[in-house]
Fold this protein.
Amino acid sequence: MFKILGKSLSTGIVTTKYPEARPEVSSRSRGRPEIDWANWRDARSAAAVCPTGAIRFEDRDGRRAAKLDLASCIFCGLCAEVDKAIRMTNVCECAARRRENLETGAVYTLKTDGTHDQMVSGPTAGSSGATAAQRDSIEVLGDQIRQRSHKLFGRSLHIREVDAGSCNGCEIEIVNLTGPVYDIERFGMHFVASPRHADMLLVTGPVTRNMELALRKTLDAMPEPRLVVAVGACGCSGGMFGVNYATRGAVDQVIPVDVYIPGCPPNPYALLQGILLAISR
Amino acid sequence: MKIARELAPIIEEIQKRFHDRIEAVQAPRENEVYVQAGPEVVAGFTAHLSRQWRARIVSLFAEDARLTEKAFHLYYVFALDAAHGFIILRVPVPPENPAFTSLANALPGVNWQEREIQDLFGLKLIGHPNPRRCALHDDWPEVYPLRKDFDLRTVLPPFQGDRHKFRTVEGEGVFQVPVGPVHAGIIEPGHFLFSVAGEPVLYLQLRMFYVHKGTEKLFENVPVSHGVRLAESISGDSGFAHATAFCHAVERAAGVEAPPRGRFLRSVCLELERLYNHIADIGAICTDVAFVTAHMHCLRLKERLLRMNEELTGNRLLRGMACLGGVRFDFDGAQLRALAELIAGLRPEFESVVRLIEESSSTRDRLEGTGILKPQVARDLGVVGIAGRASGFDHDLRRDFPHAAYGELKIEVSVYQAGDVQHRMQVRIDEVRASLSLVEALIAKLPMGPIRVEVGELPPDAVALGYVEGWRGEIFHWVRTAPGNRLARCKIKDPSLQNWPALTEAILGNIIPDFPVVNKSFNLSYSGTDR
């Protein structure tokens, strides 16, 4: 008993000060890739080595629309090895409320040798489809909902985690949130055993055919209001697995998602940022 | 044809014994010998190899070769630990009579693997004691996903609800307790159905494959370089081990070997993966018997290891480090010094946590004699890895089939007979100590030179077995290459698939409240099993 206490006292406090302090990640850590859009001349080599299609392009009518999709990026850095216009940063906080906000794209004029030239438009993030007015009204509505959810969840949040098909990589990092270093309980947040006690569903994995029903039932068992957070490249986009005979792909193909946390797996800071974003803290 | 010294006499003896019934013998590599024979040979061959040479089946799988050879093929991979070699029996199955005879009555360890072949290839099992679906849930339509005429992107109707017909256990006072697939903790999905009378568990049934993701099929549809990244996602806690086993298989198929420094760095990373998982497990076992303080200390130590992984490889789980022909990133002097400092600092920290656990009598009381897997049962089921070593099976691929840089190190294998939770934890404690020393030895002996070689264009239609002793146990990847740097087949064998049935034995007579700690002491991968 005294030895246990003594050990705790001699260990001292190891908890991070995040989000007040910046994430303590190595300068070598591979986080969000950055493309020098204005000087990018050829999307082909990066797209060819990208294992998840996070970097992709479409050539049409002498134009090339190239895109970087953080939702499917596994931060492997292979693109940066073959393309000087791309560099890996160690920025891990990439969570977004909308899937399209994780996409950045630009349009170029296409040259006959397959490289591209002058940027025609971009880089743009999250503009697909909706008009500006529609976006504004969605944003206003979103803000109101967020303020309400902040009132509801501002002080305490109970989280239920569901692995809907993950490789267990995301779970390793989620478990770390409950440890002394990231200590999610200092935010008044707690992982609970039952969806009936939960305010937030944290979902990992490409949703497998075999887990789809269980995931829906878990969500149905949660009282409203509730939040859903998709975790990891697989949860955000289907990742390496995409849609196949055994998987349905991204979480939002099965249930509505409030926040997306990219990464493979997202590190604990990225997870905290995404969870805090979901409750506007 | 060159066969390894200790394996050659065995092959000779087999050829004499089965002479005209063996159609061909090939040894694409010294320690990997293929024997081709008809289906009538399988039972006798298996019995002889296991009795005479103490061989064990480490992987059993099929391949659809109807296009090229007008047959399905079954592969029985035998490991001969003492002879340091693999004998792979290859048996054709004609498409007009797609069936094969089960070995599960004699060798319960192949039960799930045989049923998986039945489910994914549509080869009907003859004489299996329990030939129900395993890899596909009951609701699945009649599809055979690993046949070549089945498209990976086939869209199936949504899941309707029938998973598995469980056996009913009846009697006065017998209750059924269903658990899962969504569990109370932050773990992977699977369904456990307990039958209990009072507190003790009478019978446990498992329903796995909730996270079946079509991984093996996916390997056939991506370039081999993308396959390395896919292999990292087979089982998250063994990402580096799986990716390295995959690279090992592809390298063997291509006839190249990673350079010395690359192999050393592979071993360093494998040991780092072992360290963070073992330390996390030791803590998790403690938390499952309510000694949370020890768990918190272990999570703290694990965090230091994960940050070191990030400092060395750019990713906390070592992702992105594996690559064909070696490893992707070299460690410079400063990184190696930081690693050496971490290891030196970790040793006393770890020992002090172990002392806390050992001195906690209430913890020991819960762990000793709990979840016993008897050595005989473990042998029958072919249980491997830490669980096997805690139940008397003296084996370790690092010693018996040296890969990466393990041939140049002395590997101490920790073996116990007790087979309870306490000893599955003790194996981990011993292995953490050994791992810390191994990393130091690897740093001290680290050769200079390149960290990877170019693998180049793969020869088409080559086969090879790759292997790695991951932290959980032995991992096997078997590949057949296809033209254009692609694969025609990739068979993944995670130790979890072999070990799950052991859990149903170890829990018998224990109480349900002890199930979490018994389960954690095995800590099997659901994703690695289901793929």
